[in-house]
Amino acid sequence: MEVKDANAALLSNFEVFQLLTDLKQQRKESGKNKQSSGQQNLNTIMYETLKYISKTPCRYQSPETVREFLAAMKGHKLTKAEKLQLLNHRPVTAVEIQLMVEESEERLTEEQIESLLQTVTSILPGDSEEQQRDSAMATDSKGDRA
Predict the structure, then answer these.
(1) Section 106-123 average pLDDT
(2) pTM score, two decimals?
């Protein structure tokens, strides 16, 4: 991956979600009904983005959670982009980690991947239905090995 502009900041899904939610609230409070075609296009983009992002794990995150996650990630030798992907996607399997971390087979041991998974799942909140499904799958797979 090539860096085009080193001064450009990376935003997490949580930051985008928070920004768009605040902007939407401000627009409601201002009560402007007259909109240009540019404003209508912006509203469509905001709506579609919020609709997509609200289905991701970021809807359960908070600024404190993000700070705690980034502090916990300092022990792992990951790039900013890799940390951002972990934050945005909240992986729950080793395969997902391998897809997000470049050259993970060479850079991380199995123990480090397990440690990374433990950190991600313990700090970042997830969908309760998703967590129940994951724990049921883990229980089933343990039963298969017995």
Answers:
(1) 89
(2) 0.73
